[in-house]
Structures are given as structure tokens and as C-alpha cells.
Specification:
Blueprint lengths: L1 H33 L1
Amino acid sequence: EQQQQQEQQQQQEQQQQQQQQEQQEQEQQQEQEQQ
């Protein structure tokens, strides 16, 4: 059970990181469009 929980936490962290990256990419695109 403990191992499963740890794996889940790792997966969640990975997902969060991906989301953050996508957000950053979107913000960069917006800045480019404004220029």
C-alpha cells in the first residue's frame, strides 16, 4: 500500500509539472502575438 501511494504521488507531481510547462508555453505565445 505504501508503495502504491508513493507511485501515485510521483505521477501527480509529473502531471503538475507538465501543466506548468504548457501554461508557460501559452504565455510565451501570447507575448509573441502582442509584439
